[in-house]
Amino acid sequence: MAEALPLEKVATHTKQTSRALRAQALAPYLFLLPFLVLFALFFILPIIYAIQQSLYKSQRSGLGLGAATVSFNGLSNYADVVRDPNFFSSVGRVLLYGVVQIPVMLGIALLLALLLDSATARFKPFFRVAYFVPFAIPGIIAALLWAFFYQPVFSPIDKGFQALGLPMPDFLGPGTVLWSIANIAVWTYAGYNMLIIYAALQAISPEIYESARIDGCSGFRLAWNIKIPLILPALVLTFIFSIIGTLQLFTEPQVMSAISNNISTSYTPVFYAYTTAFANNNYYYAAALSVVPAAFK
Predict the structure, then answer these.
(1) Spatial separation of the C-alpha atoms in residues 84 and 288, rounded to whole Å
(2) pTM (two decimals)
């Protein structure tokens, strides 16, 4: 029979084992710590600060010429937001934008990904980079680029219509400027979403395709019945990202407002909060305007 270990050695071994288990349990949290710190500093704390700011108001005495005094306002700023027609018109405009722009953009991204994933596709690395390049361009530069295309005086698109003897489209008109903005977003983000979908397609086992072809499934049926159902999680992910991006619509309207009178300072919720804070110096009401849309993200 094996000799029994002394009680002191057993206790020491038990302590070492428990210490090692605690270290193993703590290791994942140590790796997550840098992210959690940055997430708290740049996401959680700004939201808390915005909520705190939204509970106050600034007043000036002496016909607005006196020093500003800050006082507690409770939920009055939120009551003003609920009664603000400019806010609701901006929300409705963004919802209309998202209902049209998101399906169009994701449909184009899905089509491009399926074409790249087809067995007959050639020069795949080149087209992957080409489709992704618009996303690599800063948003402000992309908006300025398309503003040049939309501006009637300099637009090569308008000059092309003139050369063909066709009427020039009004890209900046009251009924079209929203879709001109949507076109910029589609051009920018279709390639980004295409890469997410294409990566999901690449993760599908080739054996599934072989089994489908043996059963007589090819071409359109292979894409519709096999590929698209298997990449549904990636499509849901891109859909969620697109909704968040729609609610954050700001750069394109802000740039285009310089060349179009049909884009007001309350064109989108984020643009409205921005102009309220930095043009009208009403930071506390702007905080309430920011918190309300953030609650739905």
Answers:
(1) 12
(2) 0.83
Encode pLDDT of 1-29 as tens digits: 445 546 555 556 566 666 767 777 788 88
Report the Cα 105 to chain-centroid distance in Å: 13
Using CA of residue 255, residue 260, residue 294, residue 80, what is the dihedral sign?
A: positive
- How far is residue 95's CA from residue 269's CA, in Å, rounded to a whole number? 11
Q: Specify burial of residue 113 (Cβ count, 10 A radius: 0-12, 13-18, 19+).
A: buried
| pLDDT at site 1 | 44
- 3-state helix vs strand vs coil in the chain, percent to 5: 70, 5, 25
The rounded distance, in Å, linking the Cα atoms of 146 and 177 is 12
The DSSP secondary structure of 244-259, one letter per residue, reads HHHHT--HHHHHHTTT
Q: Which of 76, 110, 120, 99 is nearest to 285 (CA)?
A: 76
Report the alpha-carbon distance of residue 135 to residue 190 in Å, rounded: 8
Cα–Cα distance measured from residue 212 to residue 5, given in angstroms and rounded to the nearest whole number: 62
Give me the residue label for tokens 């309300």: 292
Nearest to 201 by CA among 107, 105, 102, 116: 116
